[in-house]
Write the structure tokens for this entry.
Amino acid sequence: MLKKIGILFFISILVFSTASCSFIKTKNPLNDEKKSIQKPNVNVKTSSNNVSDVTKDKPKQNKTTNTAANNSTVDNDVYNSQINTEGLDNTLYGWGMRVLPDHKTPEITSKAMSLIKKYDGIFTGDTTKKDIYLTFDEGYENGYTPKILDILKANNVKAAFFVTGPYIKEHGDLVKRMVAEGHIVGNHTVNHPSLPKISDEKVKSEITGLAEMFKSLTGKDMHYFRPPMGEYSERTLYITKSLGYKTVFWSLALADWQPLPGGPEESYNTVMSRIHPGAVILLHAVSKDDTMALDRILKDLKAQGYVFKTLDDLSK
């Protein structure tokens, strides 16, 4: 009898253990396959017959808390309203183009062009006129901005400077000088992140947070935006336009955030060989080579009949 009871007890335990294991077995969401993201190629194309955007897989958005204050310099009604990005593509594109000879307008992809038109972005001005637009990116200060401002003033040229949060915080005197001397100061976000990789709320706080810093320093509003690293998606273009900004890309640039192998001569020759009617020129103010070549560039472009205009002129 005891032997039979022991066998029945063992069978009961075995059945209960099997059922319990089946009940608690669940899918671990951490095992989901993650898409890899490649670093974008920022070089312009000069020889390929095909133009293609540099894309990245659509990243998962992280939920973040928006820390922007209510006194944003953009339209508060727009900012406080619910910006709905549902259904918008978040494929990451890196801004790029194919340089053409004989001072022709560089080519961008049909996809890039369609997004520029849809979201009221800027790539070039009127390519039938010899008007050009000079812009600088100011992620940090390398000691050359005062000289750049001196050169611009001496040549009566107005430019646009796209600044970040640390730049405003650490070099407010230079930002005030830009404004006082008639230059445009544009929004380059607080922390310079790749916007397609962050949530809607974080994108908004990066943009409005920078605008608030600028407003507090100068009393002025911001109207122009340049995506950090030139990385964008349809989703981020929609958000920036919804916040009241024009997104400004470029049609002439060089790898001047690092010393150029050919020094100031390379800077000069690159700009002069690639200049074209309606060009939006991007230079980095951290470049000693650009700074040393700038006066010559401005004078020789004027001698060729080019006229420096501002982004405000382009937006009229």
Observations:
- The first strand starts at residue 54 and ends at 56.
